[in-house]
Amino acid sequence: xxxxxxxxxxxxxxxxxxxxxxxxxxxxxxxxxxxxxxxxxxxxxxxxxxxxxxxxxxxxxxxxxxxxxxxxxxxxxxxxxxxxxxxxxxxxxxxxxxxxxxxxxxxxxxxxxxxxxxxxxxxxxxxxxxxxxxxxxxxxxxxxxxxxxxxxxxxxxxxxxxxxxxxxxxxxxxxxxxxxxxxxxxxxxxxxxxxxxxxxxxxxxxxxxxxxxxxxxxxxxxxxxxxxxxxxxxxxxxxxxxxxxxxxxxxxxxxxxxxxx
Length: 261
Prior knowledge:
36% of the residues are buried.
């Protein structure tokens, strides 16, 4: 929040060599999964006012305020539309406008932006339906934009349909501050120094840095191609290896990707 990094970009792409690791039906995986979730990162219920108070008849109560301004919605919306233009010109906006006033404002702003970006195919999707569609037919989505809490939940769901959380990078960007690029998983201190962690998500985060901060798409593609080449050759770390399949460590996987690059 202090850096003004309000747009969290989380791609969820099923690498071709790992189609068998997808927990969805084979025919669903075979159709391909390559979507980008754009999550608003500095507003909403995670940053709203929190309070606890006592009641006379119900004991202690707690409340979290979910608030969004028109300006906050517009800036994340523009990011999503611009990103959709760079991809397949499809954008799904996820909200809960049948219940929440914040979502009704969200939808109002997004509809106004959709008129400006008439070349992008736009749709509204209620969050419960979005969760169902991600496991039924994720290939229907290209760019998905949503608010902070919904994005937190849906991006984790999307990560699991790709086979492993250890494969997925992310970017957090703003308008002028440096971007923050990191794998979507935690630092896993329980396996630190054991040469077990999958380095692919971190390496692919560097590819995102080249693409979105340095405007070097060819270099980004070279990194992604090197990752795919190693996976296509059958090399696996423990988190993506099948039962009985030999697994290599963090260092070896990194060396192999570097060689292909």
